[in-house]
Amino acid sequence: MKYEYAPLSIQPGDSKGMFSIRLLHLLPSTDRDAKLECQLVETQIPDYLRGHSTPRRSTHVQYQALSYAWGEPEFPKSLHVLQADGALPAGAIDITENLHSALRNLRKRDKTLVLWVDAVCIDQSNIPERNSQVSNIPQTYAEAVGVLVWLGTDDAQHDGRLCLGFFTELAALIASDSDRDDQGSWRKRFKINQAVSAFLDSPQPRPIASFLARPWFRRRWIVQEVVLANDVSVHCGESGIQWNAFELALTELFENDKGGFSDEHRTTLRIMSRIRHTDLGAKSQVPLDSLVEFDSFVCSDPRDRLYALYGVIQHWFPGSQGKAQTGSIDYALSIREVFTNFAIFMMRLNDTMRSDTTYNPVTHVLQLATAIQQQTPREARLMTGEVCENIPSWVPDWTGTLSNTPLNHSPTDRDASSGIPKRQADILTSEHDTRLLFIGLVYDIVIANISLDIGPLFRAIHEAKATLNDFLCSVAKSFNETGFFGAADHNVYQPTGQHIISALATALVANWEHTPANSYFAQHPRFPNNFLEQLSSSKHHLPEILHKWPAYVELITVTMRGRGFFLTKLGYIGICTANVQAGDVVCILSDTRIPFILRPKGGRTATLQDGSPSVPDCYQFRNETQFKEVVSMLEDEPSAHCAYQLMGDAYVHGLMNGEAAKRLGSQLGDSLRILPIA
């Protein structure tokens, strides 16, 4: 008989400062193979986001929360639910193989184990309840006395037992008081290195590799489950370890074994070793970075790409006043609606930012919308039957992965949109799509985008030199084919007066703004200037000086991943996303910090008239009356009018500090346009 859930006493929307959850009371058994029996008992815990300003320990039944991987949506096992008096069965709940093994291994021999388990304690078929319970997961985990992490049963090679046993020994060695003084610390370091080497040098396959490949380490929901927990213990089969020891060991492995792990393993080690102690201060104004940091973590429902991290965002950014930071969880919404609504919430953070901060949420949302890309083209995903909704080009599709690093936001005194009237983007929602309406400048037209294969740059310096030389030959060829210099001096970059190679070398590293902290160029402001001086003294033979400047090669690989080098009709150069093509337009949008590349949709093309680009059906902006007229027109027939596809952010050399508005001067008002981005 299937178990029928009774409604919770506090329904979604009730304003009582409390909310209801069910707790799984797992009954004891001395027989490990006995069937699983439990009771589901309702309790109430504080709703901090509505009822209390600060958390407090309440008097509800103490419980632990289970963190585990659901696995495939197959439910071959049963959990038998007894009535409140424990005398009669109330029904059975079908559960996954992994949950069954977790409950069987964690079950006590002589006392009841009280757990909160999402798959069982939430009526998954009741969408309003599911929305409410998932929204309240942060409080549910915060109120639990601890979290039990279940990694799965041990395998035939006993990798779980071997790894957890080694982690326990390594953590004890790291935390030991011996040789703590500076004079003797080298002895302790030798012992640690020796222990790590002995473990990692075990015969292949190393137990750590299969251990880190377990699905739990890639489950997206674990992030908030671990972050929000009061205490965490990790279990694999019959072995267990406390999180503090687990974390100490993983931190050592991440920092110690530089070459022995795959990139995937190192990502797991890095995140697991600091997930409980992330520097909150560093994250105080960039919640979107949290989503990027955990983009390798998976979930079965695309909406959970966001929902699974809402609790973490609200925890790490407490000034956001809870759900006002993210919006509410609603599984009745489509993927497009969830992603679009979240993008709008993120852009509205501009209202709470200090005016002097270098961070701009609107700019960041637009950057991530194009930097996060799918591994396979849309057409291929449609052919395989994968759901592929029509997400607007300005909305990040969180089911993809980061293909390039967004450009840094210029400070307020070096702002590409400086001089353009500040106006927040308007949002126009219709039956067909949701558009952003910016005011700004259609400033220039792309005439060529030259790709740079950064792969060989990671190899020997002679290969890097050959690769960069081939790239520069392609650039020189594009200069000639496009008539880039016109009648001007072919050695001079007109917007800045620099030698063209010095301008190109600066553009390839986005004016040094992506320099890693450990890079040579980050050590002193004069070092980039030293590089340019040597480039000039070497007659601007850029490939010839690379052997003296490996840090420059490294910086190109950081900045140019997923990017190309472009030329424009007005004689500008810069870097942009790899999919930009001739005919796309360089735009300076109000309320953003850097230029963006847009593509006119519907076959419309931009032309250069009187030194300024012109796009058919592009709308002038002089006052609010004119703006309202355009909005009304777009609302009536959105598909009949010009719109743009967002292609990505751009570094344009000589156009990053408000030069666009300065060049137009008194003509700026006549040049402003309303730019609908769909």
UniProtKB/TrEMBL annotation:
Domain Heterokaryon incompatibility: 63-225
Entries under Pfam families matching the protein: HET (PF06985), Het-6_barrel (PF26639)
Protein name: Heterokaryon incompatibility domain-containing protein
Species, as recorded: Trichoglossum hirsutum
Lineage: Eukaryota, Fungi, Dikarya, Ascomycota, Pezizomycotina
